[in-house]
Structures are given as structure tokens and as C-alpha cells.
Amino acid sequence: MSAAVALGALDRTRRERRMRAASTTGILTAVGIALAITALAVGSVAIAPADVIAALAGTADGGAQFIVRELRLPRLTLALVVGAALGMAGALLQSVVRNPLASPDIVGVTGGASAAAVLAIGAGATGLAVSGSALVGAAVAIVLVLAASGRQLGGTRIVVVGIAVAFLAQGVLGYALTRARLEQADSAYFWLVGSVGSPSTPETLVLGMLVAVVAIGTVLGRGALAAQLLGDETATAVGSRPRRTRILAVTASTVLAAASVAVAGPLAFVAFVAGPIARRLRGGGPAVLTAALVGAVLVLASDLVAQNLIPGSLQPPAGLVTGAVGAPLLVWLLIRAARQEGRA
Amino acid sequence: MTATAPAPVTLSPDAPGAAAPALRAENLTLGYTKDRPVVHGVDVAVRPGALTVLVGANASGKSTLLRGLARLLPAHEGHVTLDGDPIERIPARQLARTIGVLPQNPIAPEGITAGELVARGRYPHQPVFRGRSSDDDAVVAASLAATDAASLAERRMDELSGGQRQRVWIAMALAQQPRILLLDEPTSALDVAHQVEVLDVLRAEVDRGTTVVVVLHDLTLAARYADELVVLCDGRIVAQGTAGEVLTEATVRDAFGIDARILTDPDTGRPVVLPRALVSPVASPVASTVPNPAKTPVVFQATV
């Protein structure tokens, strides 16, 4: 009757996983809603939560309605969408190369996108041309990193190569910024660290659609993504095609990262930390959609902190906060990786 | 190891007597870099419905040949065919429903339970838009039972011992319901009791009609379990046949570089290899240092 024993066990494991997925999603959503209401309520003019709801419903007085719907809501929406995009971009890349250190911000993809975007601005480009350049820059960076890392995508080599690419991108970015005659210091900040302070509805919409498309792809490809975590050989053995999965996922990740950079700048470490947090919350797996929620919450929280909790007259961009939170985690993961390599 | 499977589920879908699929390599040359092939022009037909053991010294190409048969490594020259069709032309999922493979150092994703891992073996049976069915659970449970791992289903892979883990991995391959099972050194790093345990599982699969090919190091265990023994040396097949035919003092000297006495197991009549001394100078190809990615442990696999 051992098969019956196993059947019961399979059922229990599945129920536990579902419970965990539901509670994780519920908690992240609740935190996100609480943060969103706070983001709409606080600022240079404080608005009571009840009035925030009324403004969203369209029944508040003119002033509150304008502040909530025209000033704060676009910024909030952009923060959520950029966070989701970066979270998915990171979790996808980390899953398909099976390396928690391989995220678009660590390996120079967002840096490449930033540098190319500023170069394009310097050359007089606007709008879509800037986004297109960001995509090209991101693609060049990821191709360089993957080519130079060869078959050793699982180790720290990809990070070392990635850091070199990121520095290269930083150099190009620095040069481009001196040439680009950006009107305000704010713009330079935007491309150096990232900010959700200048939302534009069409851009947010496009990024939102990209997030939706990749989310659907992630659901359809969940079997292949799960197989990917077994390693290329075992994934092949069970009938998956790891190379194809990797190409698709890396492409999706790069497009999402480049598009986020085009609308919000690099926002360091969001892509990097969202995946590990999501996998910890879910107890393993690719956890791409959970990472989207985590990313959204992270960017929202960082922007809230940057706008309201850091003293000084100039509001720092959200990217400063994400960087300050993410850097220690990178150090910790690198130490852990070094210990594991030492043991192996 | 008497497993009771739920009634409608069979792990080997063939009715008894149905023609077992024919896996063969023709003039197969492969390796890890184009200029240094590890296996040279090998012709081999896997005996259907039998347990075939590949043996050979380190770097003799036995794992490489198995990886070629398992389409984990593309051929430089020649090809591997399944019922006459080149395997690279067979769709990946379809092939995975016929051939199950256990690579040498499989990676268990962090946090996964044994049951969830075995369920990964159902991937080739799950179309994109359908996902899991109740059949899948029944097959997973039967596979766990067949490898005596049912009680481990809820345990996390990183909590299991080496022998337990290996049985779970074999269960994953069985969950594909393959008619051919290829295993690369499934007993390395196991103590003798666990080696016997794993080989008993494979023997039971062969008795159920599955064709099994396995790479082993221990010649005496190989002789004990093999219906067919294939000896490799320097990337070529130097002997093939039953253990009694193949394991001669001359073959062992040529292929492994040792002088050995070949005794006969009084119970089974099978040969027992008793190593005496190295043939000097070392005639074995151990000096060859072709890097073998299959043997490079993956150093950093943690997710956080």
C-alpha cells in the first residue's frame, strides 16, 4: 500500500504549497494596498485616507481630487509597474541561469540600458527612440555577459564579468551625461540611480502591458521554468528544452529591464532582491509572479521612504533607497557563495 | 521490494511481448570539444529488455557514450537512432516519454520535496494548456513505491541520505514511464548495501520489460547484475557480451590496466574480479586529461 501512502503525501504537499502561495500573495497584496493608500495620503499636503478613497471614487473636493488622481496616482502606478517589471526580470534571469546573483542590475543590463538611453538623448533622440536605445544597450550588455561567462553560468564568474560590464556601462554613462546637456540635475539623478518621480501615462501603460505579456508567458511556461531548476541535463532528460527556455526567459528579462530603465532609470537592486525574497516566501521554485509583487512593494516602499522619511529639501530618488537596502544583501549572498565554493 | 501500484497504472506501458524500442549508436563520435572526441566511431545496439552495464576505466568514454545515447551530448559524427529514427529529430517530449535519463550529478532545486521532484518526471506527459491530471499523481506514487521511496514523499531532498536521494531520482525517471532507462553511475558515492538496493530497483524494472543501460564502476557488481556487459577503453568498445564471455583476465588487463584473477561466484556462476596488481607501466588511459563537464560539480546552486 506504499503507493497509497505516497498519494496522500503528494496531496498534503500540494495543499501546503497552495496555502503558502495564497498566504504569500494575500500578505503582499495587503502590504501593497496599505502602502498605496499611504502613498496617496502623505506628502506635502496630507490627505485623510477616507478622502483618498473618495478622491479615487471621484467624489472628493477639487483640491484633494487633483492631488490624489493627477499628482500621486500616476507616480504610484509607475512605482508598482516598474517594481513588478524589475522583480520579474530578476527572478526570470536568476531562475534560468540558476544563480541568485544573476540579475539584470548586477550583471550590467540596466547599466547598459541607462548608458545607451543617455547616449541617444545626447544625440537628440526623444520618446520611443530613447526606449529603443535602452533596449539595444541592455541587449549588448546581456550578450557580452553571457558570452564571456561561457558555460559557467551557475558560479560567481557571471557576476565578475557582469560587474566589469556594469563598470563599462557606468563609464559610458558618465561620459554621455557630460555631453547630453541634460537640463536639470534631476535628470542626471534619474539616469544614475532611477526615480519614479516623472511618470508619463503612455509609458506606464506600455510597461504594464509588457509585464502582463511576460506574466502570461510565465504561467504557460511554468513547467519549463520548473524543469530549468533541475539543471540542463535533467531538464533535457524530462523532455524540456533548456536552451530555448533560457533564450526566451533571458529575452523577456532583458526587455522588461530595459523598458523599466527607459521609464524609471536603473533603480538598483530591485531586480536582484525581489527573486530571493519571493523564493524565501514561497519556499522555493522560480516564483516569478511572487517576485513581481515583491518588486512592486519594494519600489513603492522605497519611493515612500525617499519622499517622506529622508530629511532635506531635495527629495532623493527612490533608487537611492533601493541601493542602500540591496547592497548589503549582495554582500551577504557573495559571502555565502564563496563559502559554498570553498566547501565544494 | 514488492510495490503495490494503484490498479490502472503501469510504469512500463508496453504489453508483455510488445517489441521493445531499439536504441542504437552508429559510428558515433562525440566529446566535449570538437577537436578532442572522447568516443570514437562506436557502433552499439542496446539489447532490448535487458540490463546493459557500461564499464571502463576513468576517461574511457563510458559516461560520454551514455550521454550520447541520452541525447545530452550531440554527436560530432554518426548518430543515435531510436527504432531507426535519429533521436535529434524526435520531439523532445516524445523522446522523454520513451527514454528516461538519470545524469551523473543531478541537481535538486532548493526546498523541493521528494514527491515534487518525482512529479517533474511527468513533464513530458503534460501538454502546455492542460497541466497536471490525476493520472500523474497515480504514476508518481507508483514510481515512488517502485523504488521503495513512498515514505520519503514529503521529505525535502536536502534532508535525505545519498541512497534515499538516488532512489528518488530513479523514481523521477520512472515517472516518465520510459521504455528505456539510462543511468550514469547511479551507485557512485553509495555504500555497498545502497548500491545493491539501487541495482535491485533496476533489475525489477528490467523484469517489468524496461530496457536499462547503466554505467557502473564496480566490476563484480556489474557482472552480478548485467545481462549484457559493454567494456570501453579509450573511447572504443573492446568487448561486448555476457559477463562470463567478456570478463576475462586479458580484457580486464587491457581495459583497466590491472592484473586480476577472475573467479566464479559459486552461487550465481557469474565472474568475480579480484584485482592483484597494476600492470606496469600503466597502460590505462588515466593519463588522458580531457575535461569532462559531467564530472565537474556545480559549485554554487543555492537559491536564497
TrEMBL record, chain A:
Gene3D superfamilies: ABC transporter involved in vitamin B12 uptake, BtuC
Keywords annotated in UniProt: Cell membrane, Membrane, Transmembrane, Transmembrane helix, Transport
Organism: Microcella putealis
Native organism taxonomy: Bacteria, Bacillati, Actinomycetota, Actinomycetes, Micrococcales
Compartment(s) where it occurs, according to its Swiss-Prot or TrEMBL record: Cell membrane
Name of the protein this chain belongs to: Iron complex transport system permease protein
GO MF annotation, one: transmembrane transporter activity
A GO term from the CC aspect: plasma membrane
TM regions (residue ranges): 21-40, 46-64, 76-97, 117-146, 158-177, 205-227, 247-275, 287-306, 318-335
Family, as annotated: Belongs to the binding-protein-dependent transport system permease family. FecCD subfamily.
Any one GO BP annotation for this protein: siderophore-iron import into cell
Main location: membrane
Record flagged with keyword Membrane: yes
Membrane topology type: Multi-pass membrane protein
Key word Protein transport present: no
Automatic annotation (TrEMBL), chain B:
Main location: membrane
Entry annotated with the keyword Cytoplasm: no
The organism's place on the tree of life at top rank: Bacteria
Domain ABC transporter per the UniProt entry, residue ranges: 23-259
GO terms under biological process: iron ion transport
This protein's GO CC annotations: plasma membrane
Any Pfam family the entry gives: ABC_tran
CDD domains cross-referenced by the UniProt entry: ABC_Iron-Siderophores_B12_Hemin
InterPro entries, per the entry: AAA+_ATPase (IPR003593), ABC_transporter-like_ATP-bd (IPR003439), ABC_transporter-like_CS (IPR017871), P-loop_NTPase (IPR027417), Siderophore_ABC-ATPase (IPR051535)
Keyword terms, alphabetized: ATP-binding, Cell membrane, Ion transport, Iron, Iron transport, Membrane, Nucleotide-binding, Transport
Gene Ontology molecular function, alphabetical: ATP binding; ATP hydrolysis activity
Subcellular location: Cell membrane
Protein topology in the membrane: Peripheral membrane protein
Name of the protein: Iron complex transport system ATP-binding protein
Organism, scientific name: Microcella putealis
